[in-house]
Design goal:
By secondary structure, the chain is α+β, with helices and mostly antiparallel strands. The chain folds into 2 domains: 2-40, no CATH class; 45-117, Copper binding periplasmic protein CusF (OB fold (Dihydrolipoamide Acetyltransferase, E2P), Beta Barrel). The protein is built from 2 helices and 5 strands; from the N terminus they run ααβββββ. The protein has helices spanning 2-17, 28-40, and strands spanning 49-57, 62-67, 78-84, 98-106, 109-117. The protein has a 5-stranded mixed β-barrel. A hairpin with a 4-residue loop joins β1 and β2 (62-67). The longest helix has 16 residues, at 2-17. It is globular, with a radius of gyration of 22 Å. Residues 21-29 and 31-43 have low confidence and may be disordered.
Length: 119
Amino acid sequence: MKTSSILFAAFALTLAGSFNFPSSAMAAEEIEKSDVVAETKPADAAAMSTGEVKKIDKEAGKITIKHGPLVNLDMPAMTMVFRVKDPAMLDQAKPGDMIKFVVEKANGALTITRMQAGS
């Protein structure tokens, strides 16, 4: 019985050591600031995905893209229909064009917030 208690304690210590807990020297206010920064972090260039435009529906404000992985949304490569934040974005590309774009979840829908044609 004593051996199993010792093994359990060793396992618990090993497991606890694998987590990154904030040091006691870090003020609660610093932790709150870092949480706010993480929540409001804007999409950067690393969040840009690449894809091929398959279809554009200007009336509906949508674009169909065969894309690579959407890293910022943890989604695999596939073909999807997206809304665009600004309908003028649809004038930047035509079917067959390769584009770079950023997709974010806005009002419950996957929406392209930035797009660059010719990548």
